[in-house]
Design brief:
globular; four-stranded antiparallel β-sheet; six-stranded mixed β-sheet; alpha+beta
């Protein structure tokens, strides 16, 4: 591989601008807008705590940069399509004008609202770019046939992308070290923003032009090529295919466990199946060849892959169905379901089709993403919002909070811990991801006055107040409830008379999460407290709080889980927090090496069916 020279880069830059003028313009705009936004303080507030002018100026430049990035991919796809059709210059100009008009219109319709984007909008933007990238790969090969040309083109594009990443990653590292050395050796302060500027310029201008310069021009010639990269062959034969087989064994063993023991599959198994399937399909794609000969097990892999995927797809559907039946449909579960359907369709196609056209993979994926993004009522956003609204409607109706399909606004209503948690979870999800429009259908009053700009959490709190339901933030989907208690100044037991020494302590059981999942977790943190000339050690391990004096036999221990077993009934505010009062926070101790009290200021942990698991607590220790 030849490292590109400065002259090389200049030549490639000029040639690339001539071939892809609108694409390079989009890259330039993205770089300029990113640099400008990089030097603005989006958190700058005025004297009254309101967002300053710089906040909105930065949001504008971020929106422009996001628009330009999408325009980069979209314009490149259109240019490649026109080139593949041998379009005349006037048609290319006309196509670029249409692309420019579409991107500008999209800016005013979608990107200009960036300061008010919800989670749904960020997801939409991500999907838009994924679809645009897919178009870059499939646009030159939308005609029948040319399967080998499409494969050669894809491999060349990915190879060039990796080369650009390596070359210009090294260049950026060198520039960053140069700036850091000037900063250190000459005491010239170089702010972090300038490192970001270097990154934007190197990747957005030089790396992009280097990459685009190598985009193939003669697509018909590619279809006649029989070359196959040796490095790719090595990767396929000795890494990807063997690892995929091993991965398959693990997943089939887990499937056998489900069937043999008749256990529900773990929710996380969907991610593993999707990852395996993705790697398997990509390995199948890159092992395509017209002339190259592989070792025998690669051919077996290509013949068997889609057959062995079908049982795993069924497990995938089963796992996601369990989650949907318990917690309803969300965009993530929609994506898993859609992926499973797409993968099943691909399996059936490659099993029964005689042509086995590789282009079917990206084209079908593009169509699935198009429906998921812009499918309206059947899109990921439309289906998920509708399903969660129906769940919320059912819970409210079950608890008598609806009258003629509308919410009866009451001061306070008891719906139980689980009901409160479910309502809180759904309202938080809807407000964060979809805004208040869907919730408006449940209320007679206008919810706009409950909306807090750039604060979906507070907006959700306001909606919960209208429902009269105390938020249940302390409850998780898996049936485990977080507890989060702090001391109130009422009955805080601040009296210290009769004690000689007082010190702060902290104890943390870091490995509680692992133990709750049934995994071994031998580690926990000890805290050393120095009092006068003595050293005391606090430790928390599996709910047992211990206090010992260094060099002296005897250790005070107490089961704090049992001591604080009452906490589940003490949630009193909208944050899911409880209040600790005097008699309930004091733990007296008496040992041969000393006596006194442990006063808890704060504790945090989980409430389960078996009791309380304390993860950490802190407070003061008083010695007599």
């Amino acid at each position: 591989m030849k490292f590109p020279s400065i002259y090389d880069l200049n030549e490639k830059l000029v040639a690339t601008i001539r071939r892809f003028p609108l694409t390079m313009l989009a890259a330039f705009v993205a770089v300029v807008a990113s640099i400008r936004a990089n030097h603005l303080n989006r958190y700058l507030y005025d004297y009254y705590g309101e967002k300053g002018v710089e906040f909105y100026v930065q949001e504008f430049f971020v929106a422009v940069a996001l628009t330009a990035v999408f325009g980069f991919f979209f314009s490149l796809a259109v240019d490649l399509f026109l080139e593949s059709r041998k379009a005349k210059t006037e048609w290319k100009i006309f196509g670029r004008i249409l692309v420019l008009g579409a991107v500008v219109a999209e800016y005013f319709y979608f990107f200009s609202t960036y300061p008010n984007w919800l989670e749904r909008d960020f997801m939409t933007y991500m999907l838009m770019n994924v679809m645009a990238v897919l178009l870059v790969f499939i646009a030159p090969f939308l005609q029948k046939g040319a399967v080998n040309g499409f494969w050669q083109y894809t491999v060349m594009m990915i190879k060039r992308l990796l080369m650009a990443f390596v070359f210009f990653g090294i260049l950026f590292a060198g520039v960053a070290m140069l700036l850091a050395s000037i900063d250190y050796l000459f005491s010239i302060t170089i702010d972090g923003e300038y490192y970001g500027d270097a990154w934007f310029i190197i990747t957005g201008i030089f790396a992009v032009s280097y990459f685009l310069y190598a985009v193939p021009k003669d697509f018909k010639r590619l279809d006649k090529s029989v070359s196959y990269p040796k490095a790719l062959k090595l990767l396929i034969e000795y890494f990807l295919v063997p690892l995929t087989f091993l991965y398959l064994i693990v997943l089939y063993a887990y499937t056998g466990k489900i069937v043999g023991l008749w256990q529900w599959p773990e929710g996380g198994v969907a991610s593993w199946i999707m990852a395996f399937s993705g790697v398997g399909v990509l390995t199948y794609f890159f092992s395509f060849t017209q002339k190259e000969k592989f070792v025998g097990f690669v051919d077996f892999f290509r013949k068997a892959l889609f057959c062995v995927l079908i049982p795993l797809i069924l497990v995938l559907f089963f796992a996601v169905w369990l989650r949907i039946s318990d917690y309803g449909l969300t965009e993530n579960r929609y994506a898993i379901t859609a992926f499973g359907i797409w993968l099943l369709v691909m399996c059936l196609y490659f099993i029964f089709s005689k042509t086995k056209d590789l282009k079917v993979l990206p084209v079908s994926l593009f169509l699935f993403l198009l429906v998921a993004t812009y499918g309206g009522p059947v899109s990921a956003f439309g289906v998920s919002e509708k399903d969660q609204l129906e769940r919320l409607n059912g819970i409210l109706e079950e608890n008598g909070l609806l009258e003629n399909g509308k919410v009866k606004e009451v001061a306070k209503v008891e719906v139980g811990t689980k009901g409160s948690a479910e309502i809180t979870s759904i309202v938080s999800y809807l407000v964060n991801r979809h805004g208040i429009d869907g919730l408006q259908t449940l209320f007679d009053r206008d919810l706009k006055d409950q909306y807090v700009d750039h604060d979906p959490w507070q907006t959700g709190e306001n909606v919960m107040k209208l429902l009269g339901v105390a938020p249940g933030y302390g409850y998780e989907e898996n049936g485990v409830r977080w507890i989060n208690f702090g001391v109130s100044c009422v009955e805080c037991a601040d009296e210290v008379s009769g004690f000689r020494y007082i010190a702060n302590f902290y104890a943390d059981d870091y490995e509680l999460d692992k133990r709750m999942e049934g995994k071994s977790a031998p580690y926990n943190q000890s805290t050393v407290v120095n009092v006068a000339e003595s050293t005391y050690v606090f430790a928390l391990d599996e709910n047992v709080l211990s206090l010992s004096k260094s060099g002296v036999f005897g250790q005070f221990q107490i089961d704090v889980g049992e001591f604080f077993s009452w906490v589940d009934d003490a949630f009193v505010d909208s944050y899911g927090n409880g209040t600790l009062t005097g008699e309930k926070i004091v733990i007296p101790f008496s040992m041969s090496w000393g006596s006194g009290e442990i006063r808890v200021n704060y504790l945090y942990g989980r409430k389960t069916d078996d009791g309380v698991d304390i993860q950490n607590l802190n407070g003061k220790v008083l010695f007599k």
